[in-house]
Amino acid sequence: MALATRTERSPSLIGTLWRSTVGKKAVMATTGLIMLAYLVAHMMGNLKVFFGPGEFNHYGHWIRTIGEPFLHRTWFLWIARVVLAASVVLHGVAAYQLSRRDLAARPAKYERKRARASYATRTMRWGGVILGLFVVWHILDLTTLTVNPNAEEGRPYQNLVASFDRWWVSAFYIAAMLALGLHIRHGFWSAAQTLGANSPRRDRAFKVIANGLAALLTLGFLAVPIGVLTGIVS
Amino acid sequence: MNLTLRIWRQRDAGSAGAMTTYEVKGISEDMSFLEMLDHLNEELILAGDEPVAFDHDCREGICGACGMVINGAAHGPERTTTCQLHMRHFSDGDTIDVEPWRAAAFPVVKDLVVDRSAFDRIIGAGGYVSAPTGSAPDAHATPVPKPAADLAFEHAECIGCGACVAACPNGSAMLFTSAKVVHLNVLPQGAPERESRVLDMVDTMDAQGFGGCTNTGECATACPKGIPLTAIGRMNREYLRATVKGRG
Amino acid sequence: MPDHDVRWTTGDPIADTKAPDGPIAERWDRRRFDAKLVNPANRRKQTVIVVGTGLAGGAAGATLAEQGYHVVQFCYQDSPRRAHSIAAQGGINAAKNYRNDGDSVHRLFYDTVKGGDFRARESNVHRLAQVSVEIIDQCVAQGVPFAREYGGLLDTRSFGGVQVSRTFYARGQTGQQLLLGAYQALSRQIAAGNVEMHARTEMLDLIVVDGRARGIVARDLITGAVSTYVADAVVLATGGYGNVFYLSTNAKNSNATAIWRAHRRGAYFANPCFTQIHPTCIPRSGDHQSKLTLMSESLRNDGRIWVPKAKGDTRPPGEIPEDERDYYLERIYPAFGNLVPRDIASRAAKNVCDEGRGVGPGGQGVYLDFADAIRRLGRKAVEAKYGNLFEMYERITAEDPYEVPMRIYPAIHYTMGGLWVDYDLQTTIPGLFAIGEANFSDHGANRLGASALMQGLADGYFVLPSTINDYLARQPHTPVAEDHPAVTEAVGEATDRLARLLSVDGDRTPDSFHRELGELLWDECGMARTESGLRKALDRIPSLREEFWRRIKVPGTGEELNQSLEKANRIVDYLELAELMCLDALHRTESCGGHFREESQTPEGEAARKDEEFSYAAAWEFTGTGAPPVLHREELTFEYVHPTQRSYA
Fold it and tell me: C342, C407, C588, C646: which is the annotated catalytic residue?
C-alpha cells in the first residue's frame, strides 16, 4: 500500500521558519529590509546637516515628536528603536547560526579555489561583523554620547561636527560606510531572492536597484564626514 | 601532450587522504578527461599500483554519475560534465589538480568517489507526484500551458551530479532541491502536494547536513545543465507561501 | 545448418503456454482475468527482488510496492536515478492517435511485428501496443514534462520512418524524463519503507532452490561484502548486453552478469545474435576511445550522407568537388535515400569503409553533410532543429558541423536478444522474471525507434505487476534457510571467482581483454556475419578465455571499492556470452533484422529471410562453459501480420 510519507510538523509559523535554513534566511532578509528602509530615512535626515545647525537640530527635535498628539513624546522613537534593535539582533543571531552551519557543511577547502562570486558576496560575513561593531560605536558616539568627549545633549549638529573632527572617527566611519555599500549591494538582491520576489524577468531590475541603493546610501552617508573634514560643515 | 596530475587519494571513508602527483604522457587532445584518467589507471595497474577510483557511467553527460573538482572548479573549466570535458581545453605541461566533491553531506567513499545518497533522500521526502500506477486519467484530461510545461522541463533537466553542492562555499543543496520543487510545483499534476512537497524537501535537505544559501550563485555557474539561480528564488517563494498557508 | 555440428545440440521445442488463444485484442484481458490474485493482506509477507532501476526495474519496483509487496531492489550505480535508460534521446511511441492520423493499437502492433522482421511473438507485441496508451497517461500524471503545443496538449512527432505521428518526447531527453518519473515513484516507496533499496550493490548470482528462483547473491561495491538476499520471486531488469562489444552506446558499467548468471542457472537465453547497430554515432577518435555517443537519427532527415568516390582520398571534405562525391544511400536506394532503416544505413556505411573510402581517423567514418540543408532552409532553421546535437558534436570532436560535414559511423546500440520469457515475462526458471531490454520478447530481430522506452515501461508498470501475482498466488509461501545448500553453493561460487580473479596477478588489465574481445565480436559478429568469420571467432574465444585466466591482473583486494575487480568479473561473463552470440549467429544462416549473414542476400544485396527454416526464436540452454549448448526452438506463428520481405530499393 502506498503509505503516506508526510512528516508531522508543529503548527507554529515562527517555529517552522526559525528551524529551517530557508525560513531563517527569510528572517534575515526581512530584518535586513527593515534596517535598509531605516537607513534611507537616516541618510536623508543626515543631509540636512548641509543646511546649517538650525535646520539639523530642528530635525533632531522633530524626530522625538513624531506621532503627537496621538503618541506621547518619544514614543515613536522608542518604537522605532525597539524594532531596529530586534532587527539587528535577529539579523545577527540568524547570520551567526547560519554561518556556523554553512562552515560545518563545507569542512574541507579545495587546493586551488576559483571563486566566481562577486567581492560583495564574499564579504557579507566580515562586512556584517564590521557593521555590527560600527553600530555599537555609532550609538555610543552620537546617541548616548558616551565616547564623544565634547558632546552636549540636544545639540546633534555640534556633536556630529565634534565627532568627525577627529580624523580616525571619520576614517572608521568611511570604512564602515563602504562596507555598508557592499553589504547592501549583495544584500538587497539576496533578500529579493530569499523572499521569493525574484524571477528571471525581474532579476536584472533587482540587481540595478541593489547597486543604486548601495551607491546612494554610501555616497549620502559619506557626504557628512567629508563635509566636516573639508570644512564645508563646521 | 604531457601533464602533471595532482589527484586526491583516499583509501576509504575512515582514512586520511592526500594529494598525490602523477605524470601522464602522450595524452591526445581528443580524449575526454575520464579517458585521460583511464589511461593513467591502465598504467597504474600494470605498475602494480591501485588505480584511481572515480564514479562514471553513461559518459554522455546525462546520468550524473561523474564529477570531480578540476583546478578548483566543479567539472573543470567548461560548463559541462567531467565526461564531456575534453583534453583540448588543457595545454602541454599543465599541472591539473583533481579533487572529489567537498561537502559534509557528501562524505568521500574512496579517492574521487563520494556518497551522494542524501540527494535520494531529498527526493524521497517529496520530489514526486503521488500517482500510483493505474490511477492516471487520460493524458489530455489536464492541458498544461506550454510556458508552464517548458518551465517545468527546464528545471527537470537536473542530472543530480552534485556540482552545485561542490561549488557552493556552504555545501548547500538549494539548487538541486529547488530544481525539483519548481519542476513539480508549476505543473497542475503537482498542485495537490504543492505545500507539503516544498516543506518536506527543505526539512530533509537541512537534516542531511547541507549548508544554507547565501545567494553566491556559484551553484548555477557550475551547473552543467544550466539550472538557473532563479530556481532558488522560486523555491523560497513556495516555501514561504506554504508556511503561511499552514502546512500541507 | 545441420544439427550434427558438434557446437550445439537440439532439444525439445518450447511453447509459450501462458498466452491465451482467441482474438488477439482480447488476450491480455483474458490472461489478466484467468490469473490468480494474491490477497492484499498477504502481499506484505511476500518479498520480490528487483535487480536494476531503469525504466523497467524502477517502474516495477514502485508498482509492486504500491500493490503492497515487500520489494528489495538493487542497482550497481550510486543512485537508482542513474540507470542507462536515462540516456535515451528520441521519444516513446504510443498508439494514442491524438493526431487523428489513422494510428491505432493495431497499427502500432503491425509496425512493430513488421519492423522486427517477423521474429517476435504476436501476442506479446499486441499487448505492448495496447499498454502503450496507458503509459503516456501514467507518465503525465507523474509530472513528466513532455513537449506540449500552445493549446496545452501533448506534442508528437513521427520517428523512425513510420507514417503516423505517435512519438511523444521531452526535447532530446525523453529517456531522462521518463526515468526520473519512475525514480521518483520508486523514491516515494523507498521513503515509505515499502522498498528496501540497495544502491552500489551488484548481483553476482541467482539462487535457485528446488527449481524455483529464490534469491540472489550480491556484492556491496563499497565494502566488498558478498551477501545473500532471499525472496519469493526475482525480477531481472538489468538491461541489454551491448557492452560485450566494449565500444557501444551503453553506459560504461552496464553489463550482462545478472542475465548470464541466470542463464547458467537454467534460464534459456533467446536470440543472442540479434543486436542493433545505430547508424548515426560519433566515430571513434583513437585507441583511447572508451565508449561511443549516439546522435539522434532525426539528423538523417536533413543531412546527406556521402564518401569520396576515390579510395584513400584524404582531401578535406570542402576540397572534394561535387562530382567526386558518392551520395551512396541516395544512389543505391533512390526511393528512401538517406532515410533507409537503421540496419541498411549501417551496413552501407560499413561497405564503403571496407572499400577504403571511409573518412576521418582510421577511415572509419562517413560524412553527414548539412551544407544543402543550410542553403535550402537557412542556418537559423537548421540551428532550431538540430542546435543541441550540433553543439554536442562540436564539444566532442571540436569540429563545427555548420562549416565542416559531420562524421558518423555505426555503433552497437541495443540488444533485441535476452532471456527467453513466456507471455507472463517469466523465464524458464519458475519465479525468475525478466523485463525490459533484459528479455527477448517484443522486438524480434530489429527494434523500431522510440520503442525501447515503451517496452521498458510497459513491462515495468503494467505487465509484470499483473503477471507476477499469478505466480506468487500459486506458490506455497515457504522460507528459505540461510544455510540451504543451494544458497551456500551460490555464495561459495561467487566468492571463489572473485578470489581467483585477485590471485592470478598476471600482466594484462581487464580493459585490454575487454577491448580485444570487443574488436573480435565487432569484426565477426557485428554488422555483417559470415560462416567463416563466426567460426574464426568461435575458435578464438575459448583461447582468449584461457589467456584471461592466466594473465589477468586485478590490483587491490575484494574487501573494498575495487572497480578493476568489478570490471574483470563482468568480463568473465562476456567471454562466455560472446561465444553464445557467435554460435547463435552461426546457426541462423538466414539474414533478418539486425542479423545479416552475407550468405543470405537477395540479388540486390539486401537481407534475405528464410521463413520456412527460421521462423522461430532460438532459446539456448546452458550446459557448461565451452560445452555445446542445447537449442530449443519456439516456433513463431503469424495469424495477423503476414511475413513479407522488406524492400527499400
Answer: C342
User: Is C485-616 assigned to CATH 1.20.58.100?
Assistant: yes
Contact predicate A186/B215, CB 8 Å: yes
CA distance C75 to chain B (A): 13
- What count of Cα atoms within 13 Å lies in the side-chain half-sphere of residue C185? 35
Phi, psi (deg, nearest 5) at residue C280: -110, 70
Of the CA atoms within 13 Å of residue B150, those in its CB half-sphere come to: 6
Buried b (16+ CB within 10 A) or exposed e, C32-57: beebeebeeeebeebbbbbbbbbbbb
The whole-angstrom distance between A208's CA and the closest CA on chain B is: 16
Report the distance separating Cα C106 and Cα C164, nearest Å: 13
Chains touching chain A through at least 3 C-beta pairs below 8 angstroms are B, C
Is C561 in CB contact (< 8 Å) with chain A? no
Task: Please give the backbone phi and psi of residue C316, each rounded to the nearest 5 degrees, phi first.
Answer: -60, 150
- Whether B122 and B65 map to the same domain: the answer is no
Whether the pLDDT of residue A42 is over 70: the answer is yes
* pLDDT tens by residue, B175-218: 999 999 999 999 999 999 999 999 999 999 999 999 999 999 99
* A147 within domain boundaries: yes
Of B63, B87, B110, at which residue does a domain stop? Answer: B110
In contact, B101 and B161? CB cutoff 8 Å:
no
Amino acid occupying residue B177: T
Domain that residue A38 falls in: 22-104+118-229
Residues in A 4-23 with any Cβ partner in C closer than 8 A: 4-5
Q: Distance of alpha carbon C274 from its chain centroid, rounded?
A: 10
Residue ranges, comma separated, of all CATH 3.90.700.10 domains in chain C are 278-411
Shared-domain flag, residues B125 and B154: yes
Chain Cα centroid distance, residue C239: 6
Residue A148 confidence (pLDDT): 86
Does residue A15 fall inside a structural domain?
A: no
Q: Say if residue B215 is in the same domain as residue B230.
A: yes
- Minimal Cα–Cα distance from A51 to chain B, Å? 41
Q: What is the pLDDT of residues A170-201, one digit of tens each?
A: 999 999 999 999 999 999 999 999 999 998 89
The correct answer on CATH 3.90.700.10 for the domain covering C278-411 is: yes
The answer to whether residues B50 and B143 belong to one domain is no
β-bridge mates for residue C154, sequence order: C148
Q: Is C79 on the interface with B (CB under 8 A)?
A: yes
Please check whether residues B102 and B126 belong to one and the same domain: no
| Option in A16, A101, A195 nearest B212 (CB) | A101
Q: At B19, list the grid cell.
A: 594529494
Residue C156 pairs in a beta bridge with C168
B191 and B239 both lie in a single domain = yes
Give residue B10's domain range. 3-110
Chain B residues inside the 8 Å CB shell of A2: 130, 132
User: Into how many domains does chain B fold?
Assistant: 2
In angstroms, what CA-CA distances link C427 with C46, C232, C305, C635?
20, 15, 42, 17
Predicted confidence at residue A7, as pLDDT, reads 53
Interface test with A, best of B155, B170, B178, B185 (most A CBs within 10 A): B170
User: Are B214 and B162 contained in the same domain?
Assistant: yes
Question: Domain containing B124 — which CATH number?
Answer: 1.10.1060.10
Contacting residues of B for C134, CB less than 8 Å apart: 134, 136
User: Residue A175 corresponds to which cell in the numbers above?
Assistant: 570604512
pTM of this prediction?
A: 0.96
In B, minimum Cα distance to A191 occurs at B215
ipTM for the predicted complex comes to: 0.97
Whether C588 is catalytic? no
Are B194 and B211 part of one and the same domain? yes
Three-state secondary-structure class, residue B36:
helix
Domain's final residue, options B88, B110, B132 = B110
Q: How many domains does chain A have?
A: 1
Q: Is any Cβ of chain A less than 8 angstroms from the Cβ of C41?
A: no
